[in-house]
Design brief:
single chain, 82% helix, 6 helices
């Protein structure tokens, strides 16, 4: 029996596309969980740093500057997480390259950042910036006296 290469490749690519879509969905869900965790963490820090924010406002910082600090903190956390994710992907590629070639015959050439990854990175950073507005708004709405009152 002859093997029809076009049909075999079509079946292979259909299987690979299902796996690829599944991995994209998993990646989106993990990123969504990361953004939700970022909001929860920032809301907790806003609550814990209530006095600090009130003191900054009492010495002349505008509410927008205080909110800017929170957005900046979220941006730094997001950029750091993207850098750690990229470093782990590329170090994983380097560590497993020989195993993939010897066991499965797969050769993966590392590239600095794939152009297909850039839109995903941008979407994650924009989403993190947008959701950081929630804790910033909470901090903005808190009254100055709320943070300066001593609670026992």
């Amino acid at each position: 029996m002859a093997v029809m290469p076009a049909r075999a490749f079509q079946q292979l690519w259909s299987t690979v596309s299902v796996v690829e879509r599944s991995l994209v969905i998993i990646g989106v869900l993990v990123s969504l969980a990361g953004v939700i965790a970022l909001v929860a963490t920032l809301l907790a820090t806003v609550n814990e740093r209530r006095r600090e924010m009130a003191l900054l406002r009492s010495v002349g910082a505008s509410p927008l500057k205080v909110a800017g600090l929170i957005v900046g903190e979220a941006a730094m956390i997001s950029l750091t997480s993207v850098m750690v994710a990229l470093a782990s992907v590329y170090s994983g590629e380097l560590l497993w390259r020989e195993t993939l070639v010897s066991r499965f015959g797969l050769r993966i050439d590392p590239v600095p950042i794939a152009t297909a990854d850039l839109p995903w990175i941008a979407v994650f950073l924009i989403a993190a910036g947008l959701v950081s507005m929630i804790p910033a708004a909470v901090s903005y709405r808190r009254s100055l006296s709320d943070g300066l009152l001593v609670r026992t």
